[in-house]
User: Which sequence fits this backbone?
């Protein structure tokens, strides 16, 4: 594996059931994502986009095939080794924010370090929270923050450990239009500064913040859109039945 690849997959297949009842969530998917690339994954419901992201992130195991993060074969790792890699080299942002309600924003951002038994990187956290405009909100608990602010805290937490790749699953799904654009703008800025991002979204407008869009149908990658526009993305999704 070349070091310039943040994530790659080789002939990923994911099935459920067996025999006549087998269901293919992924069918022989291969891809390579260079470091610093912002990639969106799109497709109709049931196309396999979330399954693909979960396998790439080490949250789910493929039935066959291999996934590499920074050249390391994560599909060959033992559970403890995989847990440590996810904690140190992978960031996650979800639609539901997944903040700890009893912790304030700063404590939520520092949580990955505490779980790993390490001292928080104060200078990196200060830089990220400044970029995200969170300096005045760090002492607030999640219920005292707007949805957009909560998602920015989740992004700061995901970026705090300087991950090789940030996975974002419908990160603007619970946000209003303005908050969503703000969050996507921050992700775009991160990508411009070298952060690899893989985002699952159903929103063509959100996909335009990415460098390229991977389109899925029936568990397979069927199209790649570079320099996406709303029109090009909408047209590709129409082709796959969205």
Assistant:
């Amino acid at each position: 594996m070349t070091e310039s690849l943040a994530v790659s997959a080789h002939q990923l297949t994911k099935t459920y059931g067996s025999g006549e009842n087998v269901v293919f969530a992924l069918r022989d998917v291969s891809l390579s994502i260079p470091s610093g690339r912002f990639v969106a994954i799109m497709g109709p419901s049931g196309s396999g986009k979330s399954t693909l992201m979960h396998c790439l992130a080490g949250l789910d195991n493929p039935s066959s095939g291999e996934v590499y993060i920074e050249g390391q074969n994560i599909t060959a790792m033992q559970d403890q080794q995989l847990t440590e890699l996810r904690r140190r080299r992978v960031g996650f942002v979800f639609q539901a924010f997944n903040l700890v309600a009893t912790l304030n924003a700063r404590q939520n951002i520092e949580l990955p370090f505490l779980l790993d038994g390490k001292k928080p990187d104060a200078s990196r956290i200060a830089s990220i929270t400044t970029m995200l405009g969170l300096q005045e909100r760090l002492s607030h608990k999640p219920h005292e923050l707007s949805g957009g602010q909560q998602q920015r805290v989740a992004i700061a937490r995901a970026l705090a450990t300087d991950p090789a790749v940030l996975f974002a699953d419908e990160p603007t799904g619970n946000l209003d239009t303005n908050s969503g654009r703000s969050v996507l703008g921050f992700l775009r800025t991160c990508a411009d500064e070298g952060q690899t991002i893989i985002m699952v979204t159903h929103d063509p407008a959100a996909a335009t913040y990415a460098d390229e869009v991977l389109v899925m149908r029936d568990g397979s990658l069927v199209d790649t859109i570079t320099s996406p526009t709303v029109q090009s993305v909408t047209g590709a999704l129409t082709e796959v039945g969205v």
